[in-house]
Please model this.
Amino acid sequence: MEPLAIKVKIGDREYPMRVKPEDEGKIRHAGKLINEKLRKYKSEFGLDDTTDLLAMVAFDCMVESLETHEVNAGDSEHIQRSLAHISALLSKTL
Model:
């Protein structure tokens, strides 16, 4: 399929993008989440500078990403230990 030409508004600007049709919903949702965070920070801190607000949103998103990565790494280690235990049990049985 051909990429779709869409525009996503972030803050006070529109950004043209070419996206896969199957990614359009995800891209638009990401834009909506960014705008929600912008409004949240603007009301909480009384900031009007878009650059400062975008920097705060970027920082917040990076912290969330790092936290998710830590959780996933912990889950991965737990799964690997469980699989090793199951494998050892199977080896004993066979």
